Amino acid sequence: MIRLTRAPFLILVLGALSSALGACQALAGIDDRSYDLDLCKQYCDLAQSVCTGTSQIYSTPDTCNGVCHLLAPGDPNEPTGDTVACRINQLQLAEATNEPNSAATYCPHAGPATNGACASNCDTYCSLFHAACPSQIVPDDCQQKCLGLEDTGSFDVNANYYNDTLQCRFVHISVATIMPSEHCPHAALPANGPCLGMEPANVVPDCDSFCHLEMTECSGSLQQYETPQQCQDVCNALDKGTADDQSGNTVACRKYHSYNALLDPTTHCPHTGPGGEGVCGSPATPDSGTTGNCDSYCLLLEKACKSQFDSLGGQDGCEAVCVKLDGAAPNSTYSIAANGDNLQCRLLHVSRAFEDATECGAATGDAPCD
Predict the structure, then answer these.
(1) Which of 36, 66, 248, 365 is 20 to 30 Å from 317 at the Cα level?
(2) Residue of higher predicted confidence among 12 and 357
């Protein structure tokens, strides 16, 4: 009589189970690669082979592996959410689609950012930045703050290495997974280095990006402009400056403080408004050595209400009147609810005057600024 030992019996059973599982996978149309035990190797190998040239999403396999290990693995049978499985699915679509631009279509959905294919970019940014750079400050409302950044909706690891975008920060988060001390500051919300531009001293801010950031970060009682258009009007009247400005009567200075408002809005939002509140302005009087709101006010008055500006005697005459008003000094707390005989009220109405010339009277002391 032949006796089956326990070990051969187990081998037979396991073999049958293995065959059954293989058959189920084949019937379900599941790619065997989805069951690769080394998920990050599978993901990064695919990313490297599928996403090349202007569709490249990682600079090196190490940066890909670093990001991968910060993500949830996910379920290959339901490849959704901010997971490796969802990103692999996007890469497999790029690989399987017989279209010339399949990589350009799917690769931006498979990198550190997924442009909504797996998760919102701001949700992913906040999660990855916190994991890759735990020593950096992450605001409690990171997702809301992140909405103030420019999101290009695309991704190219080489093209996005520089410039003030959310995508630039994703590039540097990737590198921060292996070189945190060098690249975490570049990936922060108020960034420095490459994500302010290749050479900040030569980068001129634009009003679209400033006003998008400003209207997102300074709201409620700290709101400095009533509408995006009002912000654009004031911005277009000011000298733009360059990205490394931290003071002076420029858009760049205001944008610098809009960024710092991501972490401390109470301190920095007042510096981003029409007057600059003693930081983004010029001396209130020629010899005072202090900064105030009069230079900005008179500049805006000249652009929005030229006849009233001329009647005051130009810049010198305007500033001579301005410095005597309440609110001319630094830290006078500008508000879009301002009224009464003070400079804050006049700044509000001169900001409105770009769209409505009838506001010029209030901008120079008529009701309600009397």
Answers:
(1) 248
(2) 357
